[in-house]
Amino acid sequence: MTASRRSHLVERIGLHLGRELSTRTIVFHQTVADCLGIAATDHKCLGFIAEADHPVTAGELATITGLTTGAITGVIDRLEGAGLAFRERDPRDRRRVVVTAAPTAHARIAPLFEGLARAALKLASRYDDRELEVVERYLIDCLEMMTEETMRLQAERADAQFSSSNSSSSGGPTRVGGRSASR
Questions:
Q1: Claim to verify: residue 3 and residue 23 sit in the same structural domain
Q2: CA distances from 154 to 55, 160, 166 (A)
């Protein structure tokens, strides 16, 4: 493979195809959420709730997703309203509320993913063992990269908020619409 061909493939895979796959994944999950009568964020939160090995608190969901606890309360309200999750008092600490997927949630959601699961298995079966190992390694590396980049952005955001709150509390300028503004 020539250096220019390799460079082209690296850019195509690393930037363009990854971005396109991400976009199509978002559209797919939005469509699933539409089928369930909820928002895409609600659908992804339901995934965290359903996959957890314990009832999940609103605080845990906020930490996992980066959403505020107020936003998570809205998510839980909508999931309850759609019959996909329910709240209950934590039996070990009655002050806390935990969220669990409704017993019927899996039966309502699974059929929406059956076609995708079949297609993904069919697609993967087209590759030989060596190619599958490369694809597996690439996807695992992508997951690690996304985790690292998410953590980096979260840290930068937290630093910016901390700097902003220190500036604001000390009587310094606040930010309005991306520009400094007097109080």
A1: yes
A2: 25, 10, 18
Contact 15, 23 (CB under 8 A): no
Please report whether residue 5 resides in a domain. Answer: yes
Q: Which residue segment(s) compose the domain that 52 sits in?
A: 37-102
Of 136, 138, 119, the residue nearest 128 (C-alpha): 136
Kindly state whether residue 66 falls inside one of the protein's structural domains: yes
Strands 174-176 vs 85-90: parallel, antiparallel or unpaired: unpaired
Judgement on whether residues 124 and 145 belong to the same structural domain of the protein: yes
pTM greater than 0.90: no
Sheet containing 93-101, strands listed edge to edge, beginning at the edge strand earlier in sequence: 56-57, 93-101, 85-90
Which residue in 40, 58, 44 sits closest to 100, CA to CA? 58
List, for residues 16-67, the tens digit of each pLDDT value. Answer: 999 999 999 999 999 999 999 999 999 999 999 999 998 899 999 999 998 9
- Asked if 49 contacts 88 with a C-beta cutoff of 8 angstroms, the reply is no
Rounded to the nearest integer, the mean pLDDT of the chain is 89
CATH number of residue 77's parent domain? 1.10.10.10
Query: Based on the structure, what is the number of domains in the chain?
Result: 3
In a domain, 59, yes or no: yes
Q: What is the pLDDT of residues 161-171, one digit of tens each?
A: 888 777 655 55
Nearest 10 degrees: CA dihedral of 133, 123, 36, 90?
-20
